[in-house]
Design goal:
Oligomer: single chain
Shape: elongated
Helix content: under 10%
Largest sheet: 6 strands, antiparallel
Number of strands: 15
Strand order of the largest sheet: 9-8-11-5-13-14
Length: 309
């Protein structure tokens, strides 16, 4: 939406209204800011979740983030808890008590026994910059059920680290584990070019969240096109910022040869008459006279060319 700014101007005792059309105001939008893996192809195969075996994924935030939803690819059949735990000081030596969860992040969830899509729970809490783990578990805060984090056919996004906490009857500990499991967190982001969301409210055509001007989406979040001044790698041979032919880069952004139609601009062959560079090596200034003579000869040829034109 374009927001008008109204200014009142006083001219000779009269009041004039001056309306200025301003750029759209940024608005907040929902975005997935952490995603450990793609959705699985089989929700019936995965890690077991119960009071002695909890699962999660590590993630970091570089700035304060308002979390508005979280979830993953997991199923029931009983109530479970989903929460975010701080990990900056390392894993806790004891079971991940819900009392240690980040304030506001604890949610009691009851996903379907055999889900066919992500389980997503709406929440609202502020998460400062730092190191965290999103954990699905049971055994506390009324969450006493069992569950499963599906992973069959799921593919990691980036290089996530997964954690497991379990009780083997002797000690309870956290460990990082290899594997795949889908967890995600969503949050509010300001509408701006570079956040990965295509936002009509600020006139974006694309948003590939990178700093390259040589791909399909420019840093201005507009589609690349011939004549924009940026050479589209693998598509354009050149881009001189215009769509004119005859200047070395054609209107279709292909390199072209340029021929000057004015014959006066063609260079004349150099003459060997006069002097030659080189020195005899038999004087106090060997070669100096010949060099000066060559320069004079070149200058004479240049003047002759100017006069003849």
């Amino acid at each position: 939406m374009v927001v008008p700014t109204v200014r009142m101007l006083f001219v000779g005792g009269a009041v004039l209204l001056h309306v200025v059309l301003c750029a759209p105001l940024p608005v907040n939008a929902q975005a997935v800011f952490f995603e450990s893996a793609t959705p699985p192809t089989d929700y019936g195969v995965g890690w077991t979740i119960n009071a002695t075996s909890w699962r999660g994924a590590l993630f970091s935030t570089t700035e304060t983030q308002r979390v508005t939803a979280m979830g993953g690819s997991f199923g029931g059949p009983g109530p479970l808890f989903l929460a975010v735990f701080p990990t900056a000081g390392g894993f806790p030596p004891n079971p991940p008590s819900t009392a240690d969860a980040h304030p506001g992040s604890l949610e009691i969830v009851t996903p379907e026994f055999l889900p066919t899509a992500d389980f997503r729970v709406v929440t609202d809490f502020v998460l400062p910059a730092g190191d965290w783990a999103i954990v699905l578990g049971s055994g506390e805060a009324g969450a006493t059920g069992n569950g499963r984090v599906a992973f069959e056919g799921s593919v990691d996004i980036g290089s996530p680290e997964y954690v497991r906490a379990w009780d083997d009857g002797m000690a309870f500990e956290w460990r990082t584990i290899a594997g795949t499991g889908r967890f995600f967190l969503e949050g509010e982001v300001s509408a701006e070019c570079g956040n990965g969301l295509v936002e009509d409210s600020i006139g974006e055509e694309c948003d590939d969240q990178n700093v390259s001007n040589r791909d399909a989406c420019l840093n201005s979040c507009r589609f690349a096109s011939c004549g924009d001044g940026f050479e589209y790698s693998g598509v354009e041979e050149c881009d001189d910022g215009n769509t004119r032919d005859g200047d070395g880069c054609s209107s279709s952004c292909e390199e072209e040869s340029v021929t000057d139609p004015d014959p006066r601009n063609k260079p004349k062959p150099s003459s060997s008459k006069g002097c030659m560079l080189g020195g005899r090596g038999d004087g106090a200034f060997p070669g100096a006279l010949l060099i000066v003579c060559a320069l004079i000869s070149c200058g004479r040829r240049a003047r002759d060319r100017d006069v003849s034109s």
